[in-house]
């Protein structure tokens, strides 16, 4: 007879706290794909991103007792993963936050209307410099405020804002380049 | 415009990438082993086992100490001097008829009795101590045929004084006065006898079966 275990989030957390391997595996399998995608947004190399993911999950299991059911569990894990990814970037990459007036100028007035696949979007994101990519991901995708980003990356709010604008402009250009050959054919 | 770029990249939020198959194995190796809580039922089992062993040992010890000397305190006081005198006289008769071994035991008892008597006299209290108690295991030898038992005195110090009327082959019944502790209620035959005697009131008579020596109330 095969027993199928279906965990509710509460049970899953409770069993993980007890150190039950089955529950830990179930939790990893449930959240790791989303969290690896988070890592990949900050770290281009998939193998390194996976290493960061594992370190983040180690922290998740170690600090599970500290999780209070005030916010969402996924949000709590995501926060740990993002912090771990940023820590990796700090250690292994020199993140440059350039102060350039030129980049602050708004780019093209028209909005790109595209049907880009997620993989294409990820590729575009990876073309950005690390600083741009990090701030854009934190603000536009994760939903952090400039103040929070400033604290996380140890930069000022204005630097965060300028980095975001540059990232947006650069992405627009990249999207336009990507979609141009298609529009030419229409 | 800005919003559009942000919106364009929104699908990335729900994007998923499956980790490699070995990812979990790597992580599992690093994770601390499950904290095993001590199973309570095991402790309960152990406790029951220990209790069982302790009970068994206690039972065994009780069997080993089935026979022991009932002690008589020196200060046991009798108000009825007549009875003591009577018993002392009857014991002299008993001395004549007993065999050598019995005689020795009796002499021992007699000596200790004398000592007690002297002590009491020396204290000038005008009280007479009774014959020193005989070992329970000596009872069947000394009193081979108990005819009758009568409670003479029930003392508050957990002592019971009984008058035992015995009859040996072809002789006249002899009276003996003996003292036992009410608490000498072991599982032995005489222990059971004593147990029943301890419930007797002063002056209540008991007949012993001659062969089994179990007392039955009259």
Distance between the termini of chain B: 119 Å
* Mean residue pLDDT of chain B: 62
Q: What kind of assembly state do the chains in view correspond to?
A: heterodimer
What gross morphology of chain B would you assign?
Answer: rod-shaped
Given as residue ranges, the uncertain stretches of chain A (5+ residues, pLDDT < 50) are: 100-113
Number of strands of chain B: 5
The CATH class of the largest domain in chain A is identified as Mainly Alpha
Q: What's the CATH architecture of the largest domain in chain A?
A: Orthogonal Bundle
What descriptive keywords fit this protein?
heterodimer, A: about 190 residues, mainly alpha, Rna Polymerase Sigma Factor, Chain: A, Arc Repressor Mutant, subunit A, 2 domains, about 70% helix, about 0% strand, B: about 220 residues, alpha+beta, five-stranded antiparallel beta sheet, rod-shaped, disordered C terminus
Task: Set down the secondary structure blueprint.
The complex is a heterodimer of chains A (186) and B (218).
Chain A: H1 9-17, H2 21-42, H3 46-62, H4 73-92, H5 101-104, H6 118-126, H7 130-142, H8 146-153, H9 157-185
Helix pairs in contact in A: 1-2, 2-3, 2-4, 3-4, 7-9, 8-9
Chain B: H1 2-8, H2 23-30, H3 40-64, H4 81-97, H5 100-122, H6 139-142, E1 146-154, E2 159-166, E3 174-181, H7 189-198, E4 205-208, E5 215-217
Antiparallel strand pairs in B: 1-2, 1-4, 2-3, 4-5
Explain this structure.
The complex is a heterodimer of chains A (186) and B (218). Chain A is mainly alpha-helical. Chain A has two domains: 3-92, RNA polymerase sigma factor, region 2, helix turn helix motif (Rna Polymerase Sigma Factor, Chain: A), CATH 1.10.1740.10; 102-185, Orthogonal Bundle (Arc Repressor Mutant, subunit A), CATH 1.10.10. Chain A has nine helices and no strands. Mean pLDDT of chain A is 82; it is low at 100-113. Chain B is an alpha+beta fold and 218 residues long. Chain B is built from seven helices and five strands; from the N terminus they run ααααααβββαββ. A five-stranded antiparallel β-sheet of chain B has the order 3-2-1-4-5. The longest helix of chain B has 25 residues, at 40-64. Chain B is rod-shaped. The termini of chain B are far apart. The relative contact order of chain B is 0.12. The chains are: A mainly alpha (186), B alpha+beta (218). Chain A binds chain B through residues 18-21, 24-25, 28-29, 32-34, 36-37, 40-41, 46, 50, 53-54, 57-58, 61, 106, 109, 111-112, 114, 116, 118, 121-122, 125, 136, 139-142, 168, 171-172, 175, and chain B through 1-2, 4-6, 8-20, 23-24, 26-28, 30-35.
């Amino acid at each position: 007879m095969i027993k199928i275990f279906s965990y509710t989030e509460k049970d899953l957390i409770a069993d993980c706290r007890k150190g039950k391997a089955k529950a830990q595996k179930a939790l990893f399998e449930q959240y790791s794909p989303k969290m690896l995608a988070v890592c990949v947004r900050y770290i281009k190399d998939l193998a390194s991103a996976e290493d960061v993911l594992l370190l983040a999950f180690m922290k998740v299991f170690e600090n599970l007792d500290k999780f209070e059911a005030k916010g969402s569990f996924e949000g709590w894990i995501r926060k740990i993963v993002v912090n771990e990814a940023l820590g990796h970037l700090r250690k292994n990459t020199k993140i440059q936050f350039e102060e350039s007036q030129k980049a602050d100028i708004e780019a093209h007035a028209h909005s790109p209307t595209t049907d880009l696949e997620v993989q294409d979007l990820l590729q575009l994101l990876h073309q950005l410099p690390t600083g741009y990519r990090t701030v854009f991901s934190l603000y536009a995708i994760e939903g952090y405020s400039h103040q929070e980003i400033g604290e996380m990356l140890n930069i000022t709010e204005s630097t965060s804002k300028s980095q975001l604008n540059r990232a947006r402009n650069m992405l627009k250009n990249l999207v336009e380049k990507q979609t141009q050959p298609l529009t030419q054919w229409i | 415009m800005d919003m559009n770029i942000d919106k364009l990249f929104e699908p990335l939020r729900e994007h998923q990438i499956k980790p490699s198959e070995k990812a979990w194995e790597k992580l599992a190796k690093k994770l601390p082993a499950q904290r095993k809580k001590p199973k309570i039922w095991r402790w309960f089992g152990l406790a029951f086992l220990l209790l069982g062993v302790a009970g068994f040992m206690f039972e065994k010890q009780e069997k080993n100490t089935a026979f022991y000397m009932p002690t008589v305190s020196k200060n046991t006081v009798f108000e009825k001097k007549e009875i003591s005198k009577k018993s002392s006289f009857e014991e002299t008769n008993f001395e004549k008829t007993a065999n050598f071994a019995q005689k020795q035991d009796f002499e021992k008892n007699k000596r200790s009795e004398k000592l007690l008597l002297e002590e009491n006299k020396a204290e000038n209290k005008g009280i007479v101590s009774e014959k020193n108690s005989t070992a329970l295991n000596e009872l069947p030898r000394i009193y081979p045929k108990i005819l009758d038992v009568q409670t003479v005195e029930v003392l508050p110090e957990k002592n019971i004084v009984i008058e035992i009327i015995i009859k040996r082959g072809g002789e006249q019944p002899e009276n003996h006065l003996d003292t036992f502790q009410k608490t000498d209620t072991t599982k032995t035959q005489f222990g059971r006898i004593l147990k029943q005697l301890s419930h007797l009131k002063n002056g209540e008579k008991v007949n012993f079966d001659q062969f089994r020596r179990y007392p039955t109330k009259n």
